[in-house]
Amino acid sequence: MYVAVGADFPGTGNILTSSDGASWTSHTLSGYFPEGVVYGDGTYVAVGLSGTIVTSNDGTNWTTPASPTIVHLNGVTYGDGMFVAVGDYGAVDLSTDGVNWTHRLLDITLDFHSVTYGNGIYVAVGVSETGTGIMMTSSNGADWTSRTLDHTNSLHGVTYGNGTFVAVGEYGLTLTSSDGVSWTSHSMETFSHFNSVAYGNGTFVAVGNDGAIWQYGNPSPQTYTVTYNGNGSTGGTVPTDSGVYEQNAMATVLGNAGSLVKTGHTFTGWNTAADGSGTSYAANATFAMGASNVTLYAQWTEIPAVPTFTVTYNGNGSTGGRVPTDRGAYEQNATVAIFGNTGSLVKTGHTFTGWNTAADGSEASYASGAALTIGAANVTLYAQWTVIPSGGSGGSSGSSGSSGSGGGGIPTPDNSKVIAENGKLVLPVGRSGEVRLDEGIKIDIPANATEKELILTIERVLNTQSLLTKNEVLASPVYEVLKNFTENFKKPVTLTLTFDPAKLKDNQRAAIFYYDEGKKGWVEIGGIVKGNQISVEVDHFTKYAVLAVDKPSNEEVKLSDISGHWAEANIIQAVKDGVARGYPDGTFKPNHTVMRAEFAVMLMNALKLEGEAGALTFKDNTKIAVWAQQAIAQAVEAGIIKGYADDTFRPEAAITRAEMAAMIANALKLTLEENAATGFADEQSIPTWARGAAAAMKELGIMEGTGANAFHSAAQSTRAEAVTVLLRMLAK
């Protein structure tokens, strides 16, 4: 696009545009009178009389940003990311975008007529108030230095091309310079005044009064190339720039289009020096070509090797068997499942009790299947041994002892539950305990949950602002639970929190979360809701709270075989809640029998229990499908599911109504009477182990009798019945 500007003063400004230099289209600017125009960084900028500044992105549509001056502006140039306009009274206006400008007056005793940029320098020419020509240069557009000339004629135009500055003025004055500092004058056989000069296609052309035209030189312009170097790359290809560039032409940096790679390194961009000490460029960056070819070297950042650590087992005085071997290499913060005594370690006179990170048992203890978080060092786990006590009561037979009340017998252990109401509990070894703080939190610790005396404290966290960084909604206070040792409990501890249902929207549910101090965020652990309380089993202590969780969206569930089914609404809700899923063919198969493995997955989906569980030990483990293993392991760990007497699980067996009732009762942690009256007509056919669960299911409205008020404990359940029962469970 060619753009020419001018003014019919006083009247309108004119802007002419052409794509070929022959056919021109006129655009008028009412009230604006441009006298100079330049193109840079995708923007045309024209300046002129009375502080005129207009800009355009296409040369056709022009806008008028606020001008900082009313002084006549006579010329404008672009270079080094800066628009520079000059005018009367030594005016210099600067802008990086053509829209926002800063203004200054260098010297009111001179007028600038023209300005150009080249070879890293701005050059402005004009005339002083005495009529003497002036020339000033600047490296940044703001700070200017006067240059000495060997002529006094006023100067009207200046340009740069092919490594040369050319300035023209009165009486055919022509000056040339390679650096903008030292100038050489040329004698011209004309008395015409030159008003402007331009460069193109290797030629300078000056024009002036009386139709004077001066042409200087027509050498082939010097061109330069941009080459890319892989700089030690081990694969891929360097990009190829087939362009040739004149000095000051803008070159665009290519990306890693050839997928360069270097083993053990990441590509980070390009630099003019192989060692990265030059100028760095990212893909699509631009730079002005200098007076030499440019080579851009790929820059590489070494990928640091991620340290890994090992877990080693030590027999710690064992007299037989073998220690387990963990061949893994683990990164920091990885979670490792602790091996059991797989090599049948023994120690004469002792019983194996687990592992500890200290030989003397003074540090963290771990049981088989427990989770160990890897730190920044290798871990050694030492076998722990307990002395097998010798027989007898500790006294002696015969006349040397007493069988009466003199103290020779074994004292009866105190198994009573220790209860604390103030948030502080001291629990002796082997005892069960319960601790509360107000009515907001309760913690139940089973007997033998730890081998150490437990000192537990509960504190309410008052300042929660720093804990709520992602717009979380608290439905309960935040509690911090602390204990006097770092290792986890050997048995699950039950945490119960009271929450405010009013904090939940219709599309939200309540769930217990713990605060991950390392990741600075909340982690959901689920829980079972009863009224305004929610309970969950935990094995360690930290900060806990009940948060509002959005339920799955009401996205339409499309299943082809449930329309008109008696459980249609329940099936849709179960699928939305993630309790169950349809089949790949778009069906749900509501009347299909539910297998034990399938129901275990549905149940755990409903409970939303989190975390890893120990390895399954059923004799028929190999029959348990991969998709069900985690859910079954979690259910076993939580005491919800048990195997059969022959130590099998039978995952592919159809689940009976009695089994389903027992599992749900375990999930709800109900206290059951073994021989409870169920109220069902076929009560005598209900197995003893399931009667308490059946009675509870009827009382809670979770499971009802079939025809004639019969429970039919041995009957198999369908997928529709299973999801219906689970939704009723969740409502309790």
Automatic annotation (TrEMBL):
Residues 420-550 form the ZU5 domain. Residues 393-415 are annotated as: Disordered. InterPro entries: Cell_Envelope_Struct_Comp, InlB-like_B-rpt, Listeria/Bacterioides_rpt_sf, Sialidase_sf, SLH_dom, ZU5_dom. It holds the Pfam family Flg_new. Residues 554-614, 615-678, 680-732 form the SLH domain. Residues 393-410 have a biased composition (Gly residues). It comes from the Bacteria. Its main location: other. One of its GO terms (cellular component) is cell envelope. It is found in: Cell envelope. NCBIfam families: List_Bact_rpt. This is Listeria/Bacterioides repeat-containing protein. It comes from Paenibacillus algorifonticola.
